[in-house]
Amino acid sequence: MADYPPTVRELLAAMRELPSIGPRSAERLVLFLLEETKGTKERLARLLQAAGTRVHPCTRCGFYAEEELCELCRDPVRDPLLWCVVASPGDVLRIERASAFRGIYHVLGRKLSPLDGVGPEEIPTGLLLARIEREHPREIILALGTDAEGEATALYLGQILKKTGSRISSLATGLPAGGGLEFADSVTLSYALAGRREL
Ligand SMILES: [Zn+2]
Predict the structure, then answer these.
(1) What is the mean pLDDT of residues 112-139?
(2) Is 113 helix (H, G, I), strand (E, B) or coil?
(3) Which end of the chain is less enclosed by CB atoms within 10 A, N or C?
(4) How far apart are the CA of 166 and the centre of ligand 1, in A?
């Protein structure tokens, strides 16, 4: 049975490794790229290569950066003593879009999830504690979502961080129950930030 040439087959297989891309979407995207003449595939190839080599986690907060520090950490207008701890780099942008936070971030990278084998020892608290020791934040807001993993992680971190002397708060107020930050709109997020409660 006839099939696409080897390179196209490999490209289809690679596309299918992306989230939310099934066999049909992969085929549609690959055929589009093969036929387009506006230079999209050349630009994509160049940018994917650059993203792989140039983009890395900010050495201070863990958000995406192309220099040692990310743009948020280099912004002199932000309050460096007000922190927001989030689970993923995407959550940083969700809070930024709510335009209600002028501090800086700490990207934890993971949430507690005993069912998936992510226990307390897998949560990189050492990096966070070392950073707190260096920078002495005034307040740390835990914005880890209202799903079971987020709540458990906030509870666990709250216990550990209480000993640091910083004020620890959580932004659970008003967020949709049972979800990560991706389920909250900007208005809800800004209310949740304003109405944060101390732990
Ligand atoms: Zn940063």
Answers:
(1) 90
(2) strand
(3) N
(4) 20
Q: Give 17 Cα–ligand 1 centroid separation in angstroms.
A: 29
Distance 167 CA to ligand 1 centre (A): 21
* Contact indicator for 143, 172 with CB cutoff of 8 Å: no
Q: For the chain, list the domains and their CATH numbers.
A: 6-54 (1.10.8.420), 77-170 (3.40.1360.10)
Q: 105-141: string of b/e by CB count within 10 Å (b at 16+)?
A: bbbbeebbbeeeebeeeebeeeebeebbeeeebebbb
| AA letter at 6 | P
CA of 69 relative to ligand 1 center, distance in Å: 5
| Single-letter amino acid, residue 163 | K
CA–CA distance, 175 with 195 (Å, rounded to integer)? 11
What are the CA-CA distances from residue 127 to residues 18, 42, 131, 136 (Å)?
Answer: 30, 39, 6, 14
Distance from Cα 22 to the centre of ligand 1, integer Å: 34
The pLDDT tens digits for 17-62 are 999 999 999 999 999 999 999 999 999 999 999 999 999 999 999 9
Ligand 1 centre from 71 Cα, in Å?
7
Residue among 48, 52, 70 at smallest CA distance from 61: 70
pLDDT in tens, 63-95: 999 999 999 999 999 999 999 999 999 999 999
> pLDDT (tens digit, 9 = 90+) per residue, 169-192?
988 666 666 677 777 777 777 777
